[in-house]
Each structure stands twice: as C-alpha cells, then as structure tokens.
Amino acid sequence: MKNGYLGDQIYIFAKINDEMVYLTRVEHFNAAHKLANPKWSREKNEEVFGVCANENWHGHNYELFVTIKGTPDAETGFLFDVKKLSVLIRKYIIDELDHKNLNMDVPFMQGQMCSTENVAVAIWKQLAPHIPPVVQLHCIKLYETPRIFVEYFGE
User: Fold this and answer.
1) What is the tens place of the pLDDT at every residue in 83-130?
2) CB atoms near residue 52 (< 10 Å)
3) Domain containing 58: what range?
4) pTM, two decimal places
C-alpha cells in the first residue's frame, strides 16, 4: 500500500496564508417584546424602561450581523460558504425569532429580560454549537434601531 492508509491518493491541506479573515452575514427579523421586571411595580418599570415597558408590548425591525473568522480555503478562496452560513442562521435564529413575541414565544429567551443585550448573547449561545470547526464565531451585532446596537464576542 503506497502512502500508508491513503493508497495512491495525495491529499493536500493548505492555507492561502495565515491571514485572519472576517466574514459577516446580515439577516433581518421583526419581533415584539416588553421590558419589565416582574418584581417591580408598574411605576418603577415605567421609570426605568420608559415606553419599552408598555403593557401592550412594542416591536422592532432587528438587523442581525453574524461575523465568523478564519483562514480562507486555498482551493476556493472562501472562508466559508455564505449560503450555508445563511441556512444555519435562518434555521437556528431567524425561524425562532421572526414575527414572534420574544418574552412569550421564544424558548431560548424564557426566564430572562428580553433586552437587546440579552438577545444578542442568546443568539450567540444558540448559533455557536452549529458553526463548523473550520471557522469560529467572532461577533454577534444586533441593531434594535438604526441608532442602537449591541455587539457580543462570546466573552
């Protein structure tokens, strides 16, 4: 048997270089939520959270930026197939959040305040186990409004 267990096959595993590349996929979802601490009075919730404590909920048009990092493949030049990344984000995140009430309809948000900060951390925790080991999840950036966003780096 030539070349040990590989037989006559020659396998080349190569990197283009050791440069770290960051790839971001942007997705969108709409969701409702309410910010209110159940231990507090209505007055205290309104004082702290303002209109976000509205008893009738409110919604946002969220923009989600998912950034992965790694070294591009020598044969394709790609860091990762963006279509596959989109499928992962859609399956584990968008389908779970889009047009839902974050406080009531999303199992991975149960028992916690549905602030943008907590939603970003929860998205990381939902998505990270499904990211292939050839790349790393680098950042979740979540825009609640065009002027308010949070970034989470898994730390």
Assistant:
1) 999 999 999 999 999 999 999 999 999 999 999 999 999 999 999 999
2) 18
3) 15-152
4) 0.86
Catalytic residue among 28, 58, 99, 130: 99
Give pLDDT tens digits for 56-75.
Answer: 899 999 999 999 999 999 89
**Distances 7 to 11, 12, 13, 14 between C-alpha atoms, Å:** 11, 14, 17, 20
Whether 146 maps to a domain, the answer reads yes
Residues 129 and 112: their CA atoms lie apart, in Å, by 21
**Residue of 33, 52, 60, 96 with catalytic role:** 52
- Structurally, the chain folds into a number of domains equal to 1
Does residue 6 form part of some domain? no
Active-site residue identified among 60, 96, 114, 144: 144
Write down the pLDDT at residue 19. 83
Determine whether 99 is an active site residue.
yes
Task: Classify residue 9: in a domain, yes or no.
Answer: no
